[in-house]
Amino acid sequence: MPPVRPGETALVTGATSGIGRAVAVALRDAGFRVLGTSRTPHTADAPEGVELLPLDLADPASIALLPGELRSRGLSGSADGGVTVLVNNAGESQNGPVEELPRSALERVFQINTIGQIEVTQKVLTGMRNSRRGRVIFIGSMLGSFPLAYRGSYGASKAAVRQFAFAARRELRGFGIGVSVVEPGAIATGLSARRTVYVDPDGPYAGEFTTMLRRLNRNESRGISAERVAAEIMKPVTAARPAPLYAVGSQAPLAFAAARLLPRDAMAGILARRHGLR
Ligand SMILES: NC(=O)c1ccc[n+]([C@@H]2O[C@H](COP(=O)([O-])OP(=O)(O)OC[C@H]3O[C@@H](n4cnc5c(N)ncnc54)[C@H](OP(=O)(O)O)[C@@H]3O)[C@@H](O)[C@H]2O)c1
């Protein structure tokens, strides 16, 4: 697969905090021109040397404006010289029992974490095909591979984007474009404070849900750093043959190895107990 090179342009969605910020810095330090995105690019704190573009994945109209934003920075979507590295990072963490998730919540999490990531990818693929090289990296979640109670909508949105990615991987291989998914475990980014929560405080799930959320937040605060995840994301950027799936944090190698050996319910039980559920 043709390499992508320093001096070329990388686009990182959600580059103002956490994993996106760390990978934007890693790409910048590796010599790429880095464009990041934010819902509030004029007031957000961009990493030094990273240009911020407006993007709200919850809003299809905002995604539609992305090609114009790229053109205004001298990047053509249809010829050589466009974006050659895309890190689909921006996402939202949603929590709630399946029975109580309103349609609006389901639409929101799939719009941001799945449809939004796919539409952003569509906007840069023509340029990558024309230059016959590129790397597209989707930031999923280990919860996309390992289901957890009360994280159904989030895990499903991440599993869905992984399936899109694996299909696109074969479609784009012949054009010199590598497609990979990076699934982080618990990462200390402060994401806990930004989770959306849908639960009836007087409903039948409230007690268990609260236990799960407390443990989830504790695991996240004890998680590995965003910089460690960024180092993992750089692997498919620099590899001659990027792998389909990378995973990091939450003892990922052990978890994936165990999943190949254990019955599904046994594996689900381990994850549930890790989150305080019996
Ligand atoms: N932290 C973890 O434990 C963990 C574990 C597994 C997977 N992940 C995944 O890793 C990715 C990054 O997570 P993080 O922990 O680094 O999160 P974070 O610190 O909350 O950062 C999220 C970034 O996405 C942007 N963003 C949020 N909502 C957006 C929207 N609707 N449209 C466009 N941009 C939006 C934010 O920028 P603005 O606010 O400036 O718009 C911010 O830069 C997400 O996809 C998440 O699901 C995280």
From TrEMBL:
Pfam families: adh_short. GO terms for molecular function: oxidoreductase activity. Belongs to the short-chain dehydrogenases/reductases (SDR) family. Keywords: Oxidoreductase. GO terms for cellular component: membrane. Residues 8-190 form the Ketoreductase domain. PANTHER family: DEHYDROGENASE/REDUCTASE SDR FAMILY MEMBER 7B (PTHR44196), DEHYDROGENASE_REDUCTASE SDR FAMILY MEMBER 7B (PTHR44196:SF1). This is Alcohol dehydrogenase. The keyword Oxidoreductase applies. The keyword Ribonucleoprotein does not apply. PROSITE patterns: ADH_SHORT. InterPro entries: KR_dom (IPR057326), NAD(P)-bd_dom_sf (IPR036291), Sc_DH/Rdtase_CS (IPR020904), SDR_fam (IPR002347).
